[in-house]
Amino acid sequence: MLHINTLTFPRRNKLHPYMKLVYLQISFSGAKESATIEGTLVQSFRTIRVPEFDNPGWLWFNISHLKASMTASELVVRRRTLHRESLTVNVTIHSIGTELNKLTISEPLDEKVLNLDEPPPFGYDIFNVSLILKQWEADIVGFQFQFTDDSGSLVIHDALTQSLYCLNTSSPNEPLLIAYRIPLSGTSKTENQPSRRDSQQCSRVRKRKSLVHGTTPGECSLHQWYVNLQGPELQHRILEPHGYYANICRGHCPTETSGQEKTEAQNPLWKTESQNTTISQIPRCVPQTYSSVNMIYIAESGDVSIESLKKMSIESCVCK
How many helices (H) and strands (E) does the chain have? Predict the structure, then answer.
């Protein structure tokens, strides 16, 4: 997926690696592109155990806090093994219900052809399970993978699931269920621009260099101001980034004076009035443009969120 800008899930000691990928993708997507999906909210849920249906090949999630506004959902599972020889299998993903203590298995929610000798992008297989948002009312939802080979013969589902994917709930790569507002087809513009990361890094370097060499000393200009987020009070709340450049505007703003104003200033009768000029009429060196900072932080609820925070960094200054 990697095209979201906010992600929350139950707190763990360490971030889920997939969330780290999301954060990195957002960080290099640019503030303007982030603004195009402003307001997107994403919820994420980690696996739980359901003792009465503790089949080792099934995945269970508590979605009692799922927001009604969610419009799409994906199941993210980490591929942990590769076959030594070229081999393909067909896999379908099904939801499992437990209404009245009876199991019900749905029709296929998504289907993929897996090349077992090749790793998937970023190491994760991602399945579209959006249908559960329309038809699910219970707090607990389960998933089962069903496999067939090229001949159509059924494969032992649970055994292959355990062999193929990382299912350990204590592992940082445990399965992740993601629900979000934007449609599945809304992919990031950066996916087809592999060189954008390098170009943006160069752009940031040029901007920082201009802070030092771009203006005459004393004039209104942008100055670097680095905010360290690794202090004792913040390092356990803000996970990424470790700091950022907030910057400040500082310097002299020249006052334009017309010929008539100069004459009036020399006249003692106008002296008192000029002294009473309010400070609000004096040009000040103030921020002109801002940029956002993408941040991973622990919210008051204990969830971990990715959010693009507006006006966190000053990009340019002006006398106003």
Answer: 7, 16
- pLDDT, one tens digit per residue, over 170-214 is 787 889 888 877 543 443 333 333 333 334 444 444 454 445 444
User: 44: which 2 tokens?
Assistant: 């994420």
Q: Which two tokens stand for residue 74?
A: 């994906």
CATH architecture classification, 204-293+309-319: Ribbon (2.10)
Task: Read off the amino acid at residue 217.
Answer: P
155-182: per-residue pLDDT in tens?
A: 778 888 888 898 887 787 889 888 877 5
**What are residue 45's DSSP bridge partners?**
177
* DSSP-assigned states of every residue in 91-123: EEEEEEE-GGG--EEPSPSEEEEEETTSPPGGG
Do 98 and 117 form a contact (C-beta atoms < 8 A)? no
Q: Are 223 and 211 in contact (CB under 8 A)?
A: yes
Q: Which fold has domain 41-181?
A: Jelly Rolls (2.60.120)
Distance of alpha carbon 45 from alpha carbon 179, whole angstroms? 9
| Torsion sign (Cα): 153, 157, 160, 161 | positive
**CA atoms of 101 and 164, how far apart (whole Å):** 29
Q: Looking at the chain, how many residues does it have? A: 320
What does the DSSP 8-state code read for residue 254? P
